[in-house]
Hints:
By secondary structure, the chain is of the alpha+beta class. It has 2 domains: about 1-55, no CATH class; about 65-160, no CATH class. About 60% of the residues lie in helices and about 15% in strands. It has 5 helices and 5 strands. The strands form 2 sheets. A 3-stranded antiparallel sheet has the order 2-3-5, with helices on one face. Strands 1-4 form a two-stranded antiparallel sheet. Helix 3 (about 80-95) packs antiparallel against helix 4, helix 3 (about 80-95) runs parallel beside helix 5 and helix 4 (about 105-125) packs antiparallel against helix 5.
Amino acid sequence: xxxxxxxxxxxxxxxxxxxxxxxxxxxxxxxxxxxxxxxxxxxxxxxxxxxxxxxxxxxxxxxxxxxxxxxxxxxxxxxxxxxxxxxxxxxxxxxxxxxxxxxxxxxxxxxxxxxxxxxxxxxxxxxxxxxxxxxxxxxxxxxxxxxxxxxxxxxxxxxx
Length: 160
């Protein structure tokens, strides 16, 4: 099994020559407990240093581990935001409409705002050109729907 780890090499002397017993630790393509010669070990260490240097020079914009670099915010068509947004809008609207007994006007107003935020999400998907900007706006509208519902439910509870 090939592991992508750094090598921890322990020297071993055998009858045929000196070898290093390689144990995977972090980043190199080696087989677990593979025996390599001293020359190969030096070459692999050089490759590891090149990889580490390249990683250190990489900007945060290219770092795939950052939340802002996830595919839903960089390369998606936006369909996933519309689907998840529709589910959230349905849940939020239902929660607000269940509060009609306590305060009808506020509940209907809150539900209308949630529907308007979802309509804005659909409008952004249709009108703007594909890319990171469109996806960021759709994500912001998704968050705004959730935040609005939470705040508005607290307002309805305070009034009732």
